[in-house]
Write a structure and sequence with these properties.
Blueprint lengths: L6 E5 L4 H15 L4 E6 L1 H5 L12 E5 L23 H9 L2 H11 L3 E4 L6 H7 L4 E5 L3 H12 L7 H15 L6 H12 L2 E4 L3 H15 L2 E4 L13 H11 L6 E5 L8 H14 L3 E4 L10 H9 L4 E4 L5 H6 L3 E6 L3 H9 L4 E3 L5 H11 L3 E3 L11 H12 L5 H14 L2 H17 L6
Parallel strand pairs: 1-2, 1-4, 2-3, 4-5, 5-6, 6-7, 8-9, 8-11, 9-10, 11-12, 12-13
Length: 441
């Protein structure tokens, strides 16, 4: 029975930063000859990278229309379409997928369900149908351990300093220190799942994987870091970016990106823009629409029209390819786990400016690993200044001070970028599912 192909349903949350690792995992499992039903809404499915032809017989992209919720913007199907204050209604719409998913599970009888943090109703549903459920956390093991401490009150291998800044910033963002409802979903989903899979590896986060097992009471399986597949080299925009990057010396450019979820205030946007100029280094800033709240037009226009060293890129940018370019010497990042993995995969040192949830603990962990420097923030209101940003950038980019950071980042790239090592974790995960599938299958 262990040799029989598996059928696995994969059900991510409606966010680009979640779809990417879930799809990477699905592709790696499909490559081993197992059937994957990857379920999301039409818009999210259409935004996924094109599947390789050899995977199409195994990896099926299945569209479930998102139920209409009046408060959501027209055609909103993911966090990119949804202003932060309306995300609770996106969760409400997502919960409306329970009925069609139930019918699909009843009809298809998969061996396993792999779900994200959001569908707290799915583990009890799949259990009722006799289908074991795996909760896959696309967060780092350190961030999940950090979150467990927040929710349960049990001490993990956490970071007191990161706790302080997270709480200060959360109060500033939501006006209170109570736990966000997303956190409750995380732990309700975890509580009902049979297995806790984490996007991690023992070589980097071994102590946190062990801590998760102890604090969650679940079997915790690290499934590797799932570095992204190579991006399409035929994108005509890439050649415009390449021409700009090619004109700078090796290791002289700062790549800047704050992901798809962070919304910068006008003040923060200005401090970053001026701080980049003060550093004196050329920079390539990939700006998403979501990153700009009111739109500090003056700062944006100044960078685009007056800055001699800055490039502001407003459409999709192939982040991993840019980071791998020889001219890039540092990555100014919000410390989303996807971004950190992409940076360290090519040995690029980090300048870390976290804004949300898991980003605080990831930044602190990476600082302890000496692969980057955090931008100093005010301990009382979590604010940062152009000068503190410029100082952090200079320390990473400087010949002498940055030498040790670059060396540590290169050493970590031997783990993060080791495809065989990372694939070993996926293989062990698949072996577990094969050996522990329901008896009726």
């Amino acid at each position: 029975m262990a040799d029989k192909e598996l059928h696995i349903v994969v059900f991510p949350w409606l966010a680009f930063g979640h779809n990417v690792p879930f799809l990477e995992l699905a592709k790696l499992i499909a490559q081993k000859g197992h059937k994957i039903s990857f379920i999301s809404t039409p818009k999210n499915i259409h935004c996924l990278p094109k599947l390789p032809e050899n995977l199409k017989p195994w990896l099926h992209l299945i569209e479930f229309p998102l139920p209409r919720v009046e408060e959501l913007p027209e055609n909103a199907e993911n966090t990119l379409d949804t202003p932060p204050h309306l995300v609770p209604y996106l969760f409400k719409a997502y919960d409306g997928l329970e009925e069609p998913l139930t019918k699909f599970l009843e009809k298809s009888s998969p061996d396993w369900v792999i779900c994200d943090f959001a569908p707290h109703w799915l583990p009890p549903l799949s259990s009722k149908l006799g289908i074991p459920c795996i909760f896959f956390s696309s967060f780092s093991a350190s961030a999940s351990s950090f979150g467990l401490e927040w929710f349960t009150g049990k001490k993990s291998v956490g970071f007191a300093e990161a706790n302080r800044f997270r709480d200060v910033y959360t109060r500033k963002q939501v006006g209170q220190s109570s736990q966000p409802k997303e956190v409750n979903r995380f732990f309700e989903t975890l509580k009902g799942a049979q297995v806790f899979a984490t996007r991690s590896c023992m070589e980097i986060e071994g102590e946190f994987v062990k801590s998760l097992e102890s604090s969650s009471g679940k079997l915790v399986i690290p499934i590797g870091l799932l570095p992204a597949s190579p991006e399409d080299s035929n994108d005509h925009n890439w050649y415009t970016m390449l021409n700009w990057l090619d004109k700078w010396e090796k290791g002289s450019v700062i790549y800047v990106s704050f992901g798809t979820e962070v919304t910068l205030s006008d003040k923060d946007f200005t401090e970053i823009a001026v701080g980049l100029e003060l550093s004196g280094f050329p920079f390539f800033w990939a700006v998403k629409n979501r990153n700009i709240s009111g739109g500090n037009v003056e700062s944006q226009d100044w960078i685009e029209n007056e800055s001699k060293r800055g490039m502001m890129w407003r459409t999709w940018a192939p982040q991993s390819r840019i980071l791998a370019h020889k001219s890039v010497g540092a990555f100014l990042t919000h410390c989303g786990w996807n971004s950190v993995i992409e940076g360290l995969q090519v040995g690029c040192p980090l300048v870390m400016l976290p804004f949300q949830y898991d980003q605080w603990s990831i930044a602190k962990f990476m600082e302890e690993k000496k692969v980057g420097v955090k931008v100093h923030r005010n301990e009382h209101d979590s604010s940062f200044t152009r000068d503190s940003l410029a100082k952090a950038l200079t320390s990473v980019m400087s010949e002498e001070e940055g030498k040790y950071l670059r060396k540590a980042a290169q050493e970590m790239s031997k783990i993060v970028g080791d495809k065989q090592l990372q694939l070993k974790y996926v293989n062990e995960f698949v072996d577990y599912m094969k050996n522990n599938r329901p008896a009726y299958n």
